[in-house]
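Customer escalation, tier 2.

The customer says the design service returned an amino acid string that "doesn't look like it belongs to this structure." They asked us to rerun it and document both sides in this ticket. The original structure tokens are below, unchanged.
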């Protein structure tokens, strides 16, 4: 018996890193033809364009790179090199087949990632900071691996941004001198006529400051 088709509701229902590994492992082979194309998904292009328009440059870390569509969008805008990080080995295999990335890293972004401090001049993400996926706590590691002056363009589902504490965490990092005051750019996630056609994302754009990251679990809970 064929496995039921995976859709956006399945993606929004994941709750743990293991859920994500399982879902995207099963979805990787059909992700673009069953979701990206029929849904008119344009989020990756929107985030890449915002990043470039705000002066983004490489090397760039693509967070939650999946099958590599953000990397392709950046490459179309003549930006390189790009590294990708994702929790799903199967998604990374699909990205590797496109020969778009300099390096691909399998990692759980709710944990410390195997990357050096200040390694990147830019950080982008589309589709990862959303329901059931990453919350604002993952931003701490991304700031750590970014060099001073690095441009960030992090797409966050607009509803997720409002309910999961993104504003508070970014405001705290700004107050500590870790980042500039975030600019929020609203972008469409899809084009076309379907049940999620009106979904929007906020691209949080900011620049890494020169201060060292000193965020702790106790300060995030206060």
């Amino acid at each position: 018996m064929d496995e039921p088709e995976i859709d956006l509701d399945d993606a929004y229902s994941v709750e743990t890193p293991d859920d994500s590994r399982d879902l995207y492992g099963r979805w990787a082979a059909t992700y673009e033809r069953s979701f990206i194309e029929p849904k008119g998904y344009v989020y990756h292009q929107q985030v890449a364009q915002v990043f470039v328009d705000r002066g983004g440059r490489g090397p760039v870390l693509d967070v939650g790179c999946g099958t590599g569509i953000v990397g392709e969008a950046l490459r179309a805008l003549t930006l390189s090199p790009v590294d990708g990080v994702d929790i799903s080995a199967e998604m990374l295999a699909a990205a590797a087949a496109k020969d778009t990335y300099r390096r691909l890293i399998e990692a759980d972004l709710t944990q410390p990632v195997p990357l050096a401090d200040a390694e990147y001049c830019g950080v982008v993400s589309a589709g990862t900071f959303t329901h059931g996926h990453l919350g604002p706590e993952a931003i701490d590691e991304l700031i750590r691996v970014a060099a001073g002056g690095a441009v960030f363009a992090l797409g966050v589902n607009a509803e997720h941004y409002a309910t999961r504490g993104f504003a508070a965490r970014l405001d705290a990092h700004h107050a500590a001198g870790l980042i500039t005051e975030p600019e929020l750019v609203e972008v469409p996630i899809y084009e076309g006529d379907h049940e999620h056609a009106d979904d929007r994302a906020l691209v949080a754009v900011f620049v890494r400051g020169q201060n060292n990251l000193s965020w702790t679990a106790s300060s995030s809970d206060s």
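Tier 2 assessment: The sequence is consistent with the input. The longest strand covers residues 146-157. The radius of gyration is 16 Å. Sent an explanation to the customer and offered a walkthrough call.
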